[in-house]
Amino acid sequence: MRAHIPTEGPGLTDGGERLPDETDDNIWAPGAQDGVLTHHWGGQADPGTVERLTAALTEAVARHGGRDSGPFDALYETAREVQVIALVEDLLAAVRSSGIDPRDCYDIAYRLATEGRHREPVKLGIALLGLFDAGHHRDELMTLGRHDEFTLFAAVALQNREGDGAEADLWELARNVRGWGRVHIVERLADTADPRLRNWILREGFRNEVMDAYLAGIAAETGGLADALADADPDDELLDAACDILTALADKGGPMQGLPAYAEGERATTLFLGHMSTRARELRHFLAVHELRAYAESEWPHLTPRCAEILDRPLWADLARRELASADRAAFFRANRVCEILGVPTLPALLNRLRTVDPLDNHAWFDAARHAGPGEIDEVVALACELLPLADIATGPGTETGLGTAWAPHTCLDFLLPELGRWPGRGVPLVLAGLASPVVRNRNMAIRALDGWGRDAWPAEIRQAVATALTREPDDDVRTRLQALIDGREVD
User: Is 96 exposed, middle or buried (0-12, 13-18, 19+ CB in 10 A)?
Assistant: First the structure.
């Protein structure tokens, strides 16, 4: 971790995110598994697991300092087998009431946190360090906390600090993470009274690489969004933040409660639309107002005419067409979304982006296939055959998950194949590559496409490929679907 701290700026340098226990089939982004568990799991820790880990810790502490390393090794291996986040509260409660020698417990915690080569023992070590004043190991926590896998544990441990330095440490750490770590820390800063920190949360701190909706409500409440928008002339940075916060809150399908949980939601929206009536000039403004109109139609009907007036202005279509030429991915897809809303065709721009900017942009492939009509799908297929390394994809069936940058071509194929189901007999080379891919999802998507075609539309080479695929398939579920496909039965 220390070797990958940049001289300035957040995060870690290249290679720093890959932990020593990382495997290529890991499907979770750093901190994601723990983040999903803390936010969307309502279960309880397994008492037997808590008891087993507590017993291992008690034994390791009791025999700490001797020549026998067995108890520590046993604790380490026990920690490797559990998901610490699921039982940490119960474990710490057991430790507090156990009468374990604090000094020996500290030494073991420090060793786990700073020498462990597997993430769960390191998390256990950090959690145990949280029983002690963070001033003794503040630098170690600040270092480990820069990795989103450990930020939550480091943040909790940092809060146990004498004096008033804990909040400053959390703020510093929050600025140095962008994923689940940012989510966890800002949640713990929601009650801050520091006006500088509240302003940072409002303008920047809510942004993260997971989903802004996790922190949008905190930004609105803690940052005082409605009061900030009451300013007669708010700066552009604040309006951009308001765009993103209100867009996230208006999403009824988001992970949090959204606008219904924000007491000042209607006031903030009204003030925001008032500013947009004279200052709406960017596509992000259009998209924010578009989302707010969808929400207002059912909740605040009196605001829909204001939204409609802004959205019906003639500037948006021309602006979106110009932005389709942008090489910046975020700008391009904002323009693509606005064009879709306004009914402006974007297939030529999508294909041009794939040719000239990024041939492995899976979302561009998805939108290209989705927007293609009967006279255009062959052009999409031809470009995919030209740009995607189909021979490198079709290396034979396996059990790969296909996640990560090394599998980018396979992911592109994943996004293309379902749409081919609408076009019987079109895209045969792509379907053949999918059937022979080592990635399970590719093969499932190829089966879905062929099911959409119907057996009568299968050319001879497809019939042969499906029969061959059945004999080679290593995955029981995929084999069942292939057999159903061949038999003409419903494919699950």
Answer: exposed
